[in-house]
Design brief:
By secondary structure, this protein is of the alpha+beta class. The chain is built from three helices and 18 strands. A hairpin with a 4-residue loop joins strand 16 and strand 17 (213-218).
Length: 227
């Protein structure tokens, strides 16, 4: 069985490699990954259908190998995949990794009823990441401010540290008091606009508006919610 990987699928695999360098791909299933710390899970529906289960220990290396030949075609065998160019003259034999050496999600995340919902557009996402980089801060603080949702880049909720804030519209109980905190380093999501849901059970769901990609990112334990 021979297949080619679309650019969008390669982009998703590159993104997933930033969450975990290894991956277990299951036949006829969405591709999924989970971070070694098990605090970030991602799932993507892709147009290609893999016909067998196989594991890759170093996803970045695998993506690099597909770039060694022009217009690569993948031919799946029992123990390895043969990656060939269109002429068939150049090829790379790439061996699978044993399933027990890989970190893979065992079940899907069941998202609880969200306490906060909002749209995070790509422009806002970029501003938040740039602010975190510029200020050297590691936390994204999400809280309500007079009925408006405030997204701030902070350091350990230190009230005297320099903070960058953006106010956006969101849905939440008007009398709710919450401080939801996401570690910026866990925000390894593809560029784009997202529907974001946050549960006080310390879990968030980021759903890409154009691609069939979802991320579940754990909130930091210091997050609080009260009504």
């Amino acid at each position: 069985y021979i297949m080619q990987l679309s650019d969008s699928t390669l982009d998703i695999l590159r993104n997933f490699s930033s969450i975990n360098q290894n991956i277990l791909i299951k036949a006829d299933s969405p591709i999924k990954t989970i971070s070694e710390a098990r605090n970030v899970v991602a799932k993507a529906e892709i147009p290609e259908k893999f016909v067998k289960d196989f594991g890759i220990y170093d996803l970045n290396e695998f993506i690099g190998v597909t770039g060694l030949v022009n217009n690569p075609s993948l031919h799946f065998n029992d123990d390895f995949v043969m990656i060939s160019d269109e002429s068939g003259r150049s090829s790379v034999k790439y061996f699978y990794s044993a399933e027990e050496t890989l970190t893979a999600p065992t079940k899907d995340v069941s998202m609880p009823e969200p306490d906060v919902k909002f749209i995070l557009d790509n422009d806002t996402l970029n501003k938040l990441k740039k602010a975190a980089s510029t200020l050297g801060h590691k936390e994204l603080l999400i809280k309500a401010n007079d009925g408006i949702l405030s997204l701030s880049i902070v350091e350990n909720q230190n009230s005297t540290s320099n903070a960058f804030s953006i106010d956006i519209d969101g849905e939440f109980k008007q009398d709710a008091v919450f401080n939801f905190i996401i570690d910026i380093s866990n925000l390894k999501i593809l560029p784009g606009d997202y529907d974001v849901e946050i549960s006080s059970k310390l879990i968030t769901q980021f759903s890409h508006k154009e691609l069939s990609v979802k991320y579940w990112i754990a909130l930091e334990k210091s997050s609080t919610y009260g009504v």
